[in-house]
Amino acid sequence: MSVFDPDLQDPEIEQEAVSQAEEEVDEPSMYKVLLHNDDYTTMEFVVEVLIYVFHKSVEDAMRIMLNVHRNGIGVCGVYTFEVAETKVKTVEALARENGYPLKCSMEEE
Predict the structure, then answer these.
(1) What torsion do the CA atoms of 92, 71, 66, 75 make, to the nearest 10 degrees?
(2) Rounded to whole angstroms, what are the CA distances from 3 to 6, 8, 10?
(3) Cα angle 78, 76, 67; round to 5
(4) Are 61 and 51 a contacting pair, CB within 8 Å?
(5) What is the pLDDT of residues 34-59, one digit of tens each?
(6) What is the DSSP code string of 31-63?
(7) To 10 degrees, what angle do helices 81-97 and 43-52 make?
């Protein structure tokens, strides 16, 4: 006789185990990655960053860039903490390497 014998399974115990497992799994907090407008970073560079770092289409990158330009800030995407943090660091490193003061930040959604 096997422990995995289907005749030995108790549906109530199985459902209780599934319920407990579902309760214990919390969704991770999500963070918005934001670009901030400045007077020096070119629109072309912002579009390139959006395509390269955030994998946006040219159309989406243009839309986000114009939103940043007009409103002073724009959302590039929503990610888990670690992914958002990496994207912020990547954007700021690329900006510095290219001589731009582009600011990128993250905030909990």
Answers:
(1) 50
(2) 9, 7, 12
(3) 135
(4) yes
(5) 999 999 999 999 999 999 999 999 99
(6) EEEEEE--SSS-HHHHHHHHHHTT---HHHHHH
(7) 140
